[in-house]
Specification:
2 domains, Rossmann fold, 11 helices, globular, seven-stranded mixed β-sheet, alpha/beta, 12 strands
């Protein structure tokens, strides 16, 4: 019986893989054509105070890489911090834009809040005002410098800065999945303050006292749409995979320069506010146990994509949400395998894989 179960599970895994690969290769898995649906995600890129001209040039380049990735993936994008202030602070613009994305302004009275931005940012602002704010993921990318005085961590903006506590309050009304990516120095306390259910938090440092200029942001911007980062070869690069490549390249920089590393990126997506370093993964699988029996970090971040594969883009929001839920259940089941009787484990796994296979085989075009 166990052999038959195992064989059935292998077949189901092959069905899932074949369906995804067929769509990614442009092959038809059903008579109807596969349609790439518009992305339901949104990205806000915030460029902080540069301090020096060279830093400003670098930060602008990194922000542009994110914009290019969003263009490639058809993702709505707005950039704050590269335009003239025109009397409005970047802090206020960010706060109002987050309120809009949380759906706090039902009348969309804040849709012109970024009126001072350049044409590309204004187009991004207009795009962010459309769509279901509770559906797709919201990405918040912070590029710049940070500070930490032993108690309060801040991201440096032109004008008033923003603290981790303040950003946490602004994100509280958010019902949609959220990824907060703070690539600045002294960013680790943001992970502690922002960690929570249905959130991915990435920081460039493991401590607020890692205060030197952080290079992680460059490598993450270069990795987010880079097919070389696609470790599981599913035709798309996830936030987890980009994090792993960027962290690896950050470590390589310091090793190659013969310097002691002053930044150690962390990723948290299980809500325990502890974070996981890139060297605690083997491939895309975490190998370090989470505290208090919590699920391991990395699983949720692997479901965030800027540039989706054909199979991913063909799914409806409802299908993708259900698929993500099922995949997380599979991961949790595998993590608990040693504590479950084998027949029970195989039965539960079969139920989950069958439903995933049905989602991939169903016609996304209705």
């Amino acid at each position: 019986m166990n052999f038959l179960k195992a064989f059935t599970l292998c077949v189901l895994c092959l069905v899932i893989a074949a369906a995804a690969m067929a769509q990614n290769d442009g092959q038809e898995v059903r008579p109807s054509s596969v349609v790439r649906r518009p992305s339901d995600s949104a990205v806000i890129v915030v460029v902080g105070a540069a301090g020096e001209t060279e830093f400003g040039r670098q930060f602008a380049l990194w922000a542009d890489l994110w914009r290019q990735a969003c263009d490639k993936g058809g993702v709505r994008c707005a950039v704050i911090g590269l335009d003239p202030n025109n009397g409005r602070t970047d802090r206020d613009r960010l706060k109002e834009l987050l309120m809009q994305q949380a759906g706090a302004d039902e009348e969309r009275g804040t849709t012109d809040q970024l009126h001072g931005q350049d044409a590309r940012a204004t187009q991004g602002r207009d795009a962010l005002a459309t769509g279901d704010r509770r559906a797709g993921a919201l990405w918040l990318v912070l590029i710049g410098h940070g500070t930490f005085d032993g108690r309060t961590a801040k991201f440096n903006l032109r004008g008033p800065d923003i603290s981790a506590e303040e950003l946490g309050r602004w994100l509280e009304p958010m019902e949609r999945p959220v990824a907060v990516i703070n690539t600045a120095s002294s960013s680790a306390p943001f992970l502690t303050k922002l960690s929570g259910p249905n959130r991915v938090v990435i920081t460039a440092t493991k401590s607020g006292f890692e205060q030197n200029y952080a290079r992680f942001g460059q490598y993450l911007a270069e990795s987010i749409a880079n097919s070389e980062a696609d470790l599981d070869k599913d035709g798309q690069t996830s936030l987890l995979e980009a994090f792993l490549m960027a962290a690896s390249r950050t470590a390589e920089f310091y090793a190659g320069a013969g310097r002691m590393a002053t930044e150690h990126p962390l990723l948290d997506d299980n809500g325990d506010a502890l974070g996981t370093r890139a060297d605690w993964f083997r491939g895309i699988r975490p190998v370090v146990k989470a505290a208090d029996g919590a699920s391991l970090d990395g699983y949720r971040a692997h479901q965030f994509h800027i540039v989706r594969s054909a199979a991913e883009a063909a799914m409806t929001t409802e299908q993708r949400t259900r698929r993500d839920q099922l995949e997380l259940e599979v991961m949790k089941l595998r993590d608990a395998k040693e504590a479950i009787a084998e027949p029970v484990y195989l039965n539960r796994l079969e139920v989950l894989l069958r439903e995933i296979a049905e989602l991939y085989e169903s016609d996304p075009n209705g």
